[in-house]
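Name: Tetratricopeptide repeat protein
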Amino acid sequence: MSSFDKRGNPVSYGSQQAVEALDRVCDLLHAYQADPLAEVDRLIAEHPDFALAHAFRAGALATATDKAFEDELGKSLRAAEALLAQANERERMHIGALRAWFEGDWERAVERWGRVSIAYPRDLLALQLAHLGDFYLGYSQMLRDRVARVLPHWHQDIPGFGFVKGMYAFGLEEAGDYRHAEEQGRAAVALNRQDGWAVHAVTHVMEMQGRSAEGAQYLAGNADGWAPNSMFAFHLWWHKALFHLEANDAASALQIYDQHISAAGFTQALELLDGSSLLWRLALLGHEVGARWNALAEKWRARSDDAYYAFNDVNAMLAFAGIGDQQAQERQLAAVRRAAAGQGSNAMMSREIGVPACEGLVAFARGHYRQAIDWLSPLRGKANRFGGSHAQRDLFSWTLTEAAIRLGDRPLAEAFVAERLSWKPHSPLNRAWAQRVGRLQAPQSP
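Structure predicted for Tetratricopeptide repeat protein:
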C-alpha cells in the first residue's frame, strides 16, 4: 500500500496521516523554521518503519556539515537502509544519496539528489538537499540551474512554490543575475514571510551590490517574519552585521554579534563560522572585540581534530589566529593536512583550499604579511572549490587587502582596493581602505 504527499510524490508508507505529518515537518525545513528534527523524532517514534521519515532525518543532519551530528546521521541512514525492501524507487534514490554523503562523496550525493529531482520534479526535499549540497561544494551555476530544471513543473497552486522561487533566487544571485534574483526573492518572500532562504537571497543581492544601508533596513523591516522560531536567524543577523561594517558602524555589528549570533551559545558549526568570520573582519579593521575571541575559540577546539569540512576548518583557524594561540593553529593545520591526504570531497577541498588558506591565516596572524599574500592570493580564483557564498569568501579579499596595507606594499594594496571599488564604488569601507592606501609611501621610480 502506498500514499502520496501533498505535491503528488509517491510514498511507500501506507498511513496517509503519517505522510501528511511528514509534509508538515518538511515545510519546517523548507522555511528553516524550528524544529524539524524534534518533530520528525516524534513522527518516527509513532511510525518506526517509515523509511522516508528516516531519510528526511538523515538529510537534515547531513546538510548541517558538522561532524558532531555524524553518529545520528549514521543511525538514521542505517534505519532507512533497513527498510529498503519496502521503499519505492524515489525513496531508494534518496537513501542512496545519503549513503554517498555519509561515505564522504558529497559530489556523488548531490548528483543523486539531483537525479531524484529530475525524476520527481516536485520532490521539494530532494531539490533542497541538492541545493544545499551545491552550496557546500561551491557550485554557483548549479545553484541556479538545478532549480531551473524543475521550474516548468511548478506553479502558484502547488504547495511550496515560494520555496522553489527562493532557491532559484539564491542561485541567480550566486550566478550574478542580480536583477532577476531580487525579483524572484521578493516574490517568494511575498508568498511566505517566514521563508528565511528567500530573504537570504534578496539580502545577498544587496550585499553584492553594496547596498548596505538598504540591506540593513530590509532585514530590520521584515525580521518579524523570519526571525521568530527560525533556525537560520543567526545567519541573517550576520548579514545585517556585514551591512553595518560596510558602513563603518562597528558598534552595531558587535551588538548584533552579542545579541543574535553568540547568544545561543554556538551549538553547531554553521553558527560558529559566522561568529569567526564576523570577528575576523572586525579585528582586521582594528576594532577591539574583547574576550569574544576566547569564548569562540573554546567552542572550535572541540572540533579541531574533526577535519570534516574544509570551510569549517578555515573558519576555526580564524579564531585560533585571532587569539594568537600557536599551539591551536598547529593542531588545526595538522588536521587539515590529514584530511587533504585522504579521499572524498573534503580531501579535495582541503588540498586545494583548506591547507593553503590555513597557512595564509597563520602567516597573517604572526605578522608575516608577504607570506600570507603568497598563500592566499592564488586562492582567489578557485575559492569556490570549498563552498560557501561569494559574500562569505570575500573574507579572502578583506585579508589580502589588509595584509598589503600592513606590509606597506602600495602597488599591491592599490590593486586589491581597485578590485573592491570596482564591485562597490560607493562603499564607505572600500573608500576608507583607499584612503589608507593613499597614505602609504609611493614606490621609488627606477
